[in-house]
Amino acid sequence: MLDVQNLNKSFGGVQATRDVSLNFPAGSLTAIIGPNGAGKTTFFNLISGHIRPDSGRILFEGRDLVGLSSLEVVRRGMARAFQVASLFPSLTVREAMTAAVTSHQRRSAGLFSRFPLSGSRDRVQELLELLGLSAKADVLSANLSHGDQKLLDIGLALAMEPKVLLLDEPTAGMGPDERWRMIDKVHRLWQAKQLTMIFIEHDMDIVFKISQTVHVLKYGAVLAQGTPEEIRRNQDVIDAYLGTDHHMALAAEEA
Ligand SMILES: Nc1ncnc2c1ncn2[C@@H]1O[C@H](COP(=O)(O)OP(=O)(O)OP(=O)(O)O)[C@@H](O)[C@H]1O
């Protein structure tokens, strides 16, 4: 589905991505982890078309995405949940979702399509239910909790009907309970929509609990790849996290 080959990206003297080759099979749920500055966000920026690699290929369903705009990457079927819900404070949850769903439908149908856009209301309702936001459909986006704003961000990305969904730290800034509620929803969403999902996450308990595969970056390069069990016991990975804020070493000891 998504096959990244020998990706490189430098910013001045900093090589943020070093010969990264990673494969993401259709329907997989993969965590990208690594210490601060490892190149996780840069990797997302590269594959989503926000920045262009210096070299390498990003094969999505067999076609290279390198050089395409981020909008074109979304059109091909790879969407990223951005912190955008807060940009529409005066829209309710339903209004924001409706705007996203209808704009996607219009784009898919052709800009000048004269056909009426059918089914957008059902689609919005389906997404609201999937995300557990139905009860808050009439709440202004500005008045949502941090967790619900993140869910709305995910909903706005899902409105693009992606095959691959990229989530950048879906649980950032949340307390322990809210974190687990959030990740439970993300996990159910992945199961229900049969998406290929890739998420960056700092919380190792969450990474080990829900991902099928974990890719570890360090200094821009792939340090390790494997199942949560393999990664948890990988000495290079444990060493990479020692002396950092993350509790990778602790999580390994607890296993
Ligand atoms: N636009 C940019 N200009 C210059 N340097 C950059 C830019 N974007 C990233 N970098 C550098 O590239 C390296 C990787 O950064 P990146 O944000 O991708 O890491 P990260 O793993 O996402 O970190 P964190 O966990 O702290 O979010 C860092 O050294 C960073 O300073």
What does this structure look like?
With 255 residues, the chain is α/β, with parallel strands linked by helices. It has 2 domains: 1-77 and 162-255, Rossmann fold; 84-161, no CATH class. 40% of the residues lie in helices and 24% in strands. The chain is built from 10 helices and 10 strands. The protein has helices at residues 40-47, 70-76, 93-109, 120-131, 146-158, 176-193, 204-210, 228-232, 235-241, 248-254, and strands at 2-11, 14-24, 29-33, 55-60, 63-64, 78-81, 164-168, 196-200, 213-218, 221-226. The strands form 2 sheets. A 6-stranded mixed sheet has the order 6-7-8-3-9-10, sandwiched between helices. A hairpin with a 2-residue loop joins strand 9 (213-218) and strand 10. It is globular, with a radius of gyration of 19 Å. The model has no long low-confidence stretch (mean pLDDT 90). The protein binds adenosine-5'-triphosphate (ATP). Adenosine-5'-triphosphate is lined by residues 11, 14, 16, 34, 36-42.
